[in-house]
């Protein structure tokens, strides 16, 4: 089997639900040994989250993929000691309990460092480890609202709308994985100290709002709801084709607008008058009206041919069925079919990003609760069969 980029890195995923477990899953995709530590008897709450088929979560096989599931109850002293024994043999702990919870249980970062000074600890919480809100409960959808993002999404004459999936959680998961990799590089390559990574659910989204921050600071403007980015590009929007499809066209740069002029045969009429973005934004209506009429007079296939030839990005608005059927998705292995005990087979998103020399892989789907107890506690920690049975009888594992 081809070598993977993170082979030799051991991660303890003691988190639940989405953001932090997804970060651990990204590392697992590229070869990290991720031990998923779950509450004895009930496991990660994500296992019960919908959509459900035959009472089983259809999301768990993907979220739990490439992880070794073990059970452990931190409420017992023996359970805490088992956790610290795992910390001794690991590189990273990823957690998302309320700030201060691990310390309250007696297994906080200082305690972890007593048994393993080189342990890296990644925290994912609603509001972060500092500030007046640090101990408040946090979930992705409310934290999207806190970030300022929800306020801007939707139409100006209607209430704000939240994204139809846990965007803030997945973005925070990316930052958590990114921060963990930086900490590993700093520790292992630069020979620096092991450190903590502090990720909040709202800041990942807020980091992307640089235009809104500058707009308010320098111009006193509060960005209002709009179905598309506003004030940065023209033309921009959703347009209906002659064959009743919806397409997105965005001219983010002046060269792309010139390419659109070529596609629409408008060069003499629009250039140089509208060559610069500031001129288009000062008088957008004639351009938007003309593009709307042009798109309506063509089928999508005609538009795609004209725009592709001229170098103008264009796409129809895909639903998930369109993604399944598109040859680009197929060529990139963006949707993969994985054997799965619960459902026989289940499709899930493929590996991102694509690495040329050490590509990631899906080695198994999310395991049943406690499937790796014998492997991890027996082989890794060296516990005897008798000891394992005793821990099971006490419901510690």
Q: Key terms for this structure?
A:
397 residues; alpha/beta; three-stranded antiparallel β-sheet; elongated
Question: How far is it from the N-terminal to the C-terminal residue, by CA?
Answer: 32 Å
The dominant shape is elongated
Query: How many DSSP-defined strands?
Result: 13
**Structural class, judged by helices and strands?**
alpha/beta
How would you sum up the major sheet? 6 strands, parallel
Describe what this molecule looks like in 3D.
The protein has 397 residues and is α/β, with parallel strands linked by helices. The mean pLDDT is 95. The strands form four sheets. The chain has a six-stranded parallel beta sheet, with helices on both faces. It is built from 19 helices and 13 strands.
Short structural description:
The protein has 19 helices and 13 strands. By secondary structure, it is an alpha/beta fold.
Strand-helix topology:
Elements: E1 10-13, H1 19-29, E2 33-38, E3 52-53, E4 56-57, H2 60-63, E5 67-71, H3 77-88, E6 92-95, H4 101-104, H5 109-115, E7 120-125, H6 140-146, H7 149-152, H8 167-188, E8 196-200, H9 203-206, H10 210-219, E9 236-240, E10 246-250, H11 254-264, H12 267-270, H13 277-282, H14 284-296, H15 300-310, E11 314-316, H16 320-325, H17 327-331, E12 335-340, E13 344-349, H18 373-380, H19 385-393
Parallel strand pairs: 1-2, 1-6, 2-5, 6-7, 7-8
Antiparallel strand pairs: 3-4, 9-10, 10-11, 12-13
Helix pairs in contact: 1-8, 11-15
